From TrEMBL:
PhnB-like domain: residues covered: 5-130
Stated name of the protein: VOC family protein
Lineage: Bacteria, Bacillati, Actinomycetota, Actinomycetes, Micromonosporales
One of the Pfam families matching this protein, by short name: 3-dmu-9_3-mt
Provenance organism: Micromonospora globbae
Gene3D superfamilies: 2,3-Dihydroxybiphenyl 1,2-Dioxygenase, domain 1 (3.10.180.10)
Length: 137
């Protein structure tokens, strides 16, 4: 397997809900393991997600977990997840789903560099940058 870099998101107890939402947005195969499955559960965490991985037919990979008790959760302070492509209809559908129930910080609009670009924070507090590039050729 070649090396790859994947976004890894942390949630304060709702990783399952978030990852199921992202699977609805992007499709693909979602695998999740709980803390309880590995016998590492602190009280009240057996059903929480120790590791989740969504892999899509488009080559997207998104990983996540619930934070163990006592770890601080401050989403969006240091990272955004970027989605880009030249299939405008597909990328626009991602935008619509991700921004629904969230906050649009920059509308998806034509930019001075020629792409359509927008930014939003989804309902789970994760910031997204969405870019539609003009088809080449």
């Amino acid at each position: 397997m070649a090396s790859r870099l994947n976004p890894y998101l942390n949630f304060p107890g709702n990783a399952r809900e978030a990852m199921e939402f992202y699977q609805q947005v992007f499709g693909g195969s979602l695998r999740m393991s709980t803390f309880g499955e590995f016998g590492a559960a602190e009280p009240g965490t057996a059903d929480q997600i120790m590791h989740a991985m969504l892999e899509t037919d488009r080559g997207f990979t998104l990983m996540a977990s619930d934070l163990p008790p006592g770890m601080e959760h401050t989403p969006g302070t240091t990272i955004s997840v970027s989605v880009s492509g030249d299939d405008a209809d597909e990328v626009r559908r991602y935008w619509e789903r991700l921004s629904e129930g969230g906050v649009v910080t920059m509308p998806l609009e034509k930019q001075m560099w020629g792409d359509e670009f927008g930014m939003c924070t989804d309902r789970f507090g994760i910031p997204w940058m969405v870019d539609i590039t003009p088809p080449q050729g």
